[in-house]
Amino acid sequence: MASILKVNTIQDATNSNTAMSIDSSGRVLTPARPSFQYDITNYSGGTNYLSSTYKFGSESSGNDLVISYFSPIPFLNAITTDGFTTNVGGGASFVDHPASSSYKYLKFTAPIAGLYCFGMVVDFANRHSGVDYYGYGLKKNTASQSGSGSTSASSFDKPLIQARPNAERGNTDGGTNIIDLAVNDFVVYYSRSVAETEFHQSTASFFGYLIG
């Protein structure tokens, strides 16, 4: 026999944390759902302001940080202290980059198994001498660098952005993808085939959340 459950709030039985709330119009909120957003602002005085551009890539000259063909995206230490606008569950964090302790990479560790959505919106400029392919995406359960080649070690588990900008051209890109994670699996935002790219003084966002 069909029945109707009328309730405003659902909490866990152990600690009384609110898992779901329903307002008088039937709209549902899930405040404990794991999620994060990390933002960089493009104006002086803004939260997590990038005060100067920096370049990274595999070319040995011209870059502020030389990385491998396949490497975690490097973030200056100065912009990794207060950029999280939300981090429900505390899964997102910054860790020292394998190429230099002056930079960090963005990592998300799953507090619960499920299907997750991740994305990024950035403005990277190609400072290479010619047209250059680059890619950005997600790698699961690794944070090491690797050389070139079509192998699993130098390929994304999930791509987010792939572009081929002309020399000395900026490119505003964004992308999202879905990945299945077990408890304590982690994902890292990676770059692939970056020769010489400049992290612009532009607004940027990196985010992720549990779908279910």
As an assembly, this protein is single chain
What is the strand tally? 18
The CATH architecture designation is Sandwich
Topology order in helix (H) and strand (E) letters: EEEEEEEEEEEEEEEEEE
Average of pLDDT: 89
Shape: elongated
Count helical runs: 0
Number of domains: 1
Percentage of residues in DSSP E strands: over 45%
Summarize the main sheet.
Answer: 8 strands, mixed
Overall CATH class: Mainly Beta
Point out poorly predicted stretches. Answer: none
User: What is the first-to-last residue Cα distance?
Assistant: 28 Å
Q: Give me the Rg, rounded.
A: 20 Å
CATH T-level topology: Jelly Rolls
Task: Give structural notes.
With 212 residues, this protein is mainly β. It has a single domain (34-210), classed as Jelly Rolls. It contains no helices and 18 strands. It has strands spanning 9-11, 18-22, 28-29, 35-40, 54-57, 65-66, 70-72, 75-76, 84-88, 92-97, 100-109, 114-126, 134-140, 158-163, 169-181, 186-192, 197-199, 204-210. Strands 4, 5, 6, 9, 12, 15, 17 and 18 form an 8-stranded mixed sheet that branches. The protein is elongated and about 70 Å long. The two termini are 28 Å apart. The mean pLDDT is 89.
